[in-house]
Amino acid sequence: MTATPDHAVPEGADTFRKLWAEIVSAHGELTALDIDGVSLSYREWDEAAQAVARRLINQVSWRAGFRVGIEVSKPEFFSEILGVWLAGGVPVPLRET
Fold first, then answer.
1. What does pTM read for this prediction?
2. Percent residues over pLDDT 90 in the chain
């Protein structure tokens, strides 16, 4: 993942985080993702995404609204997208060329 600055703070970021927390609370052990035989519950997906969000937020230069490139072919793609959203960033899917 690579981050690039953007000074605008995304609207609705807090609303998204609250809604996601409600979903995880209500459906924590249900399957959220099942890709190529690998399943994650909402709780597991949230834990992986929160780790990504913490890693981004703990960067010295992190600000909400940063664009973060995420490689589409990585198995962590969905956790990274969610983590970027939870950190207030903007995920930018990238394909390997």
1. 0.81
2. 62
